[in-house]
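Appendix B, example 12.
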Amino acid sequence: MEYQDDTLNQIAATQKLAIQKIKSGGLIELSVRGDFVCQLNIGPDALDWYAIVHDRENSKEVWQDWMDYLGYNDGKTQAELIDDKRRDMSTFIEAWLRASDARITQTKTKFLFGTISFRSTELELCLGGQWQVAPIYDPSR
C-alpha cells in the first residue's frame, strides 16, 4: 500500500514490507524473530516512530522504544530530520531482518539515592552469531 510518506514508502519497497494505514499514522509489521514479533508505528507528521516488540505466544508487549526528531534537531532543517528518520528506521529494520534470533534482557536493579530502584529492558538481536543491543538509530550520524 502506498503511504503518504515517501521516505516510508522507500524503506518499505527496499525491504519488501507492507505499510498499513492506521489512525495514528502507519504500521509496519516485521517478521518473527525467536519468540517475538516487532511492529513499527510511524507518526503521521513523519518526525517520530515507535518500535514495539510483543511476545508472539501471548501478544504481551515486552519492549518498546521510540525516536522523536522534534526538539532534538540541533538546528537541522525538516528535510535533514526526515533523512535522519529514514536512516534510523532503515538501520533498525535491516538489523531485525538480518537477525537470526531476538531476546529481551533486563539490566540489574539500580538504586538511586538509596531508595528508588528500577529495571530496564533491552532488545538484543543475534547478528552473525553475536548478541547485540538492537540499534534504534544509525550510529554513523
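The beta strands are 19-22, 25-33, 36-42, 48-55, 61-68, 101-106, 110-112, 116-118, 121-127, 130-133. The chain is about 20% helix and 40% strand.
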